[in-house]
Amino acid sequence: MGTAEIFGALPAQFVFPAGGNRLVVDLNRGSDRHGAKGVVAQVDYHGRSIYRPECIPDETERSRRIKAYYWPYHQRLIEALENQAVKILFDCHSLEGIGPEEAPDAGKKRKDITLSNNGDKNGNENKTLSTKTTCSAETLYLMREAFQKSELSVSINDPYRGGYITAHYGQKYAAAGKMAVQIEINQNLYLKPGDIYPLPEKLKDVKHRVKKTFEEIGRTIL
């Protein structure tokens, strides 16, 4: 919640809002990911069942949703990344202020901003998992500094290292000199805990600070 209002207003080369709830189809999962937390999820972020037992989507419904919502979005994303003018992919999300039950940081208070590049908590490659980062640690440090100048606290790859979009496309287009970064913004900056409607003045303030931050990022990174 609030992601489209905050990040969608930025003067980016391309902006692709999800266009629907990720509990219908999760665009940030691999299309072949099955299970309760797959591309067509069966539980929410608190571990609660989304469907009555008799209404769980079968393979036909799962395929229909992927064809109708998932592939059109990813095709648009690929076309944008093939554009030579595009240098970096920012995959922007929002998260709850306290980690929900199903999160890796359940019950913990979160930073204002989480930056992710598929690495460890220092932004370096995770040698234990043998995964490739989607941008350099130095890039994340510059971004962290830019957000901090706007008085926003920042964590790196904590609680999330980056989802499918960041990891997949960041690695796929690395040889073309492109980068990918996942950005999560804390909903408590502009929502009352438990509410779904942004507070207008707080949302306006956050939008201003994020815009100022990206102007700084543009000067130092791009």
Question: How many domain units?
Answer: 1
Largest sheet: 4 strands, mixed
Order of secondary-structure elements: HHEEHEHEH
The number of helical elements comes to 5
SS strand fraction:
5-15%
What structural class results from the helix and strand content?
A: alpha/beta
Q: For this structure, what is the CATH homologous superfamily?
A: Zn-dependent exopeptidases
Helix content: 25-40%
In terms of quaternary structure, the protein is single chain
Report the mean per-residue pLDDT as an integer: 94
What distance lies between the first and last C-alpha atoms, to the nearest angstrom?
27 Å
| CATH level 1 class label | Alpha Beta
CATH architecture: 3-Layer(aba) Sandwich
**Model regions low in confidence, pLDDT < 50 over at least 5 residues:** none
* Order of strands, widest sheet: 1-4-2-3
CATH names the topology as Aminopeptidase
